[in-house]
What we know:
30% of the residues are buried. A hairpin with a 2-residue loop joins strand 4 (55-56) and strand 5. Mean pLDDT is 86; it is low at 385-392. This protein has 18 helices and 14 strands. It is an alpha/beta fold. Strands 2-1-3-6-7 form a five-stranded parallel beta sheet, sandwiched between helices. Strands 9-10-13-8-14 form a five-stranded parallel beta sheet. Strands 4-5 form a two-stranded antiparallel ribbon.
Amino acid sequence: MSTSLLLVDDDRTFSSLAASMLSQEGFRVRVARSLHETRVALAAEAPDLVVLDRRLPDGDGLVFLPELRAQLPTTVVLMVTAHGDIESAVEAIRAGARDYLSKPVEIDDLVMRARRAASDLQLQERLRQAESVLEGRHRLAESRSPAMQRTLQMLERIATTPRSPVLLLGETGTGKAVLARHLYALRQKQGAFVQINCAALPDTMMESELFGHERGAFTDAKTARRGLVELASDGLLFLDEVGELPLALQAKLLTFLDKGAFRRLGGMTELTSTARIVAATNKDLEAEVTAGRFREDLLFRLSVFRVDVPPLRERREDVLPLARTLVQELCSELGRRPVPFSPAAEERLVSYPFPGNVRELRNVLERALVLEVGPALELQSLAKGGGAPAAVDPNAFSVSGPPRPLDEVERLYVRHVLEQLGGRRMEAARALGLSYPTFLRRLEENPPSE
């Protein structure tokens, strides 16, 4: 969706030229040439961005600025002041303007600042959407497990230290992201919660995503961009799958953890951020250090607070309460009334080991809500079959025929995992414990059949 922009300037030549250039950049531009026209335009549609001249025929734009901010607090304002009028520029910033331009305004400068503001707005919207999804789907349920209660008590103590890094260790699906958000929620009046999966982006994009880039830093860098470290300043940056970070970027992250300082890609200016880093992984980082894939000094630095997240099989007391909470959330999402568990379903929940932990539990419940009929959930998918020692898993991997070379079996298994996950390559790579480039190489050796 394009960014809507209201240009308030009584100079017809300048406003026409600026509106034309901004429209070519993808902005939806409207022009107002007085405060009266501005109020009419604001009443008709709230713009994302306002470029506001100070000197207008029927009033002072700087005097009007507080009224604008009160009416539209989320709208970004760029104030235009007279050349050399530093006092007005400072007053505009104090009144809530994001930035200011001095006359005579260079069109290129205006376009650049408008682009930057639009980029910030888009990132903020992405953050709001992600936070909404997380808050709706991943609320922390009350725990009865002593092991989990110890973990939560430790997080409460950690929350009193605003910037010390935290390392969450645990199997896949144990809820490390939920705990990171819980730690964030324990502190009031702070910046944004920002999350990134380090395995979800190519190595070439990770540095720009984390630390930002300057204009011209690489071929497609047409404008400067703030990275997640900047966006999370005074807040929390959650690095999921931190064991997948490339070694070169591990060094830059270590520098940031030590000094709180960094440079954007292609930049010379040292910037600072007070973001707390919370990292998570299901890998054995000590083994990764031994194998030369993870820096030992970074592991030490991340481990200021090391939190082990217990798997669901060690939290039997939590299974039923957690399942009931998840069913309520899923029913709300599916637009249906909550459904109880049958006594047999409760027995199955308590006895099943849940190797996929909370994520698997949620998937089992979602599947049952959609596929099962009846007044109560039976969770037949967790039932043992026909008196056999264990139910036969139709999705189990097997290789029939005579013995095969180990390399061939590994290639077949890579394809099997990819098929089980519906072709989602990133998830398959994580499930196999492979970096994404290594997974792609394995896949190229044995491409899936059409």
